[in-house]
Design goal:
The chain is built from 7 helices and 18 strands. The chain has helices at residues 2-33, 91-97, 118-143, 190-197, 260-270, 300-309, 339-350; strands at residues 38-48, 52-53, 57-58, 60-63, 73-82, 104-107, 152-157, 172-178, 181-184, 203-210, 213-220, 235-238, 246-249, 281-284, 287-288, 294-295, 314-318, 332-336. A 6-stranded mixed β-sheet has the order 6-1-5-14-17-18. Strands 7, 8, 9, 10, 11 and 12 form a 6-stranded antiparallel β-sheet that branches. A two-stranded antiparallel sheet has the order 2-3.
């Protein structure tokens, strides 16, 4: 009887083991098969904007102005994203991602609007990249002393803007008056220079051209929602800038707004006799405004890790993103607020004048 019970026990043990294995296999199959509503962000590739992209030639090409040889590197950085509309990320991938350094897992709803399609996401990303390139060109040329003519046409007004019901689509802003001083809005950075100085709640008066008539429209500014200094109007504008120099930026399969600052520095370096980098490898990130403000973006830990992996020892970032910086050996984070400061900081790094470099507050 004892031997029969022993055989029975062994048989039950084998069955139990088999059931556990089948359960684990089923769990893994479900873990891979079921789509997880999460986004996985990890360090992506970096690109030297002073260099070339395979098969595309130079990333930045300048025609109609004198250019100079460059040395060193100015690396724009990216975040590799898995998940989102039209893609499949499994729960197993999410679990493994949580175990990796410099990888972040976010709910899909925190990144993409509900109901967004894969095509819509691609269109928005590409539009952001095109806008960042134009902003970089305007900001760089303005920093170099060029005048960039523009015509500020209203394309939309937010419902909660103080200018809602006052401005209309297709209005053209001609002048702006702030604190008794009137400024012509005929240069690409003219309006943004005023907004960057005006705190939220400031009263502005615009001379507006509408259907052949000149109107005077007043309203108050509000707090920016993108980390920039000063204030914003809560309206959408097409500045219709006319660049005095032909600048082309060719970078395939990269989207979003955060390369603007590095594009602008790359343009400045190509058009300046002295090297901006001094032969050093400088990486960085940050969207940029027409007025040259370096604007807050996302993915700082992933971008900084990618920059270090590709050999950069310096990492420029928006000052508003300082709270995201994680201590990392071999690479130093340098916060900047605007393009002029980013240019100065790069020159300090090139000259090894490191004692006065700005730094993010200790966490």
């Amino acid at each position: 009887m004892a031997r029969k019970q022993s055989k029975k026990s062994r048989l039950q043990g084998k069955i139990g083991t088999a059931l556990m294995a089948l359960s684990l296999l089923g769990f893994l199959i479900l873990g891979f098969a079921i789509r997880a509503p999460f986004i996985i962000e990890s360090p992506g590739p970096t690109f030297d904007v002073l260099g070339s992209q395979s098969g595309q030639g130079q990333i930045i090409k300048v025609e109609g102005a004198k250019t100079y040889p460059t040395k060193g590197q100015l690396r724009m950085v990216t975040v590799s994203m898995r998940g989102g509309p039209g893609t499949h990320v499994s729960y197993v991938e999410v679990l493994l991602a949580k175990m990796r350094s410099f990888t972040e897992v976010l709910p899909e709803s925190a990144v993409y609007p509900k109901g967004a399609t894969e095509k819509q996401v691609e269109q928005v990303s590409q539009a952001q990249m095109e806008d960042s390139q134009l902003s970089a060109k305007v900001a760089a040329l303005s920093e170099l002393g060029y005048k960039v003519p523009a015509r500020f046409k209203v394309t939309g007004i937010a419902e909660d803007s103080d200018f809602s019901g006052k401005l209309k689509e297709n209005d053209v802003l001609q002048t702006v008056t702030y604190r008794g001083k009137t400024r012509q809005l005929n240069l690409a950075n003219s309006l943004f220079d005023v907004l960057e100085q005006a705190p939220p709640g400031s009263s502005l008066t615009f001379s507006v051209r509408r259907a052949g008539q000149n109107l005077s429209i007043s309203g108050k500014t509000r707090k920016p929602n993108d980390g920039r200094q000063g204030s914003q109007l809560g309206i959408f504008l097409n500045p219709q800038a006319k660049l005095p120099v032909d600048i082309k930026i060719a970078l395939q399969e990269v989207g979003g707004p955060s390369a603007g600052t590095m594009f602008a520095l790359g343009i400045i370096d190509r058009m300046s006799e002295s090297s901006l980098t001094g032969g050093k490898e400088i990486a960085g990130t940050g969207a940029i405004s027409y007025g040259g403000q370096v604007l807050e973006i996302s993915g700082i830990p992933q971008k900084m890790a990618g920059a270090k992996k590709d050999g950069a020892h310096w990492f420029l970032l928006p000052k508003a993103n300082c709270y995201e910086v994680q201590p990392m050996s071999g690479i130093r984070a340098v916060p900047v607020e605007n393009l002029h400061q980013a240019r100065q900081v790069s020159a300090q790094i090139a000259a090894n004048q490191l004692e006065k470099l700005p730094c993010c507050p200790a966490r």
